[in-house]
Amino acid sequence: MMIPIFKIIPEKKLVGKCIKMTLAGNKTFELWQSFMSRRKEIRNILTNELFSIQVYDPSLDFKDFNLETVHEKWAAVEVSDFDVIPDEMEPFTLPAGLYAVFLYKGNPNDFAKTFHYIFGIWLPASDYLLDTRPHFEILGEKYKNNDPDSEEEVWIPIKLKK
Asked: Where are the domains of the chain?
């Protein structure tokens, strides 16, 4: 059983690339390959952490989420400002707010079980509702692509039930 840590984050400025996709038509590999090949062009990066962001339609009920649900996927890094943005990259402002942060250990291809746990078991039993802000993962020093020992933080936007 995964137990989240609760964190309130300030607004963050990010620069990266985005693509609209579904899980059935997953283009995550292409997005990250395209972004990582040009990441060094971003001059004002604040940390070595990579942000994998999902922006869903605010009306989406995750009970209805399926492989054909369209969402926006971002590969990005945190920056100090938006003064200089490389060609073919875009600014993204991550809004401030409360998040439930889960530590995921394992191969990214095995994440579906964790996704079902968070949205099907943990969230309904918690004192929180899903908020409409972006969801994201932070890929830090312990992230190893396609490695069973990989670790990443899964940030789920939440708000207290009334």
From this structure: 5-160
| CATH class of the domain comprising 5-160 | alpha beta
Share of the chain above pLDDT 70, in %: 95
Beta strand ranges found along the chain (DSSP E): 5-9, 12-21, 50-55, 71-78, 90-94, 97-105, 128-130, 135-139, 151-160
CA distance 45 to 14: 9
Q: What three-state secondary structure class fits 97?
A: strand
- How many residues would you count in the chain? 162
Nearest to 14, CA basis, from 97, 75, 73: 75
User: For 58, phi and psi rounded to 5 degrees?
Assistant: -60, -25
Inter-residue contact 51 to 124 (CB < 8 Å): no
d(CA 122, CA 106): 19
This prediction's pTM: 0.89
| Residue-wise pLDDT tens digits, 37-59 | 999 999 999 999 999 999 988 77
- The rounded distance, in Å, linking the Cα atoms of 20 and 22 is 7
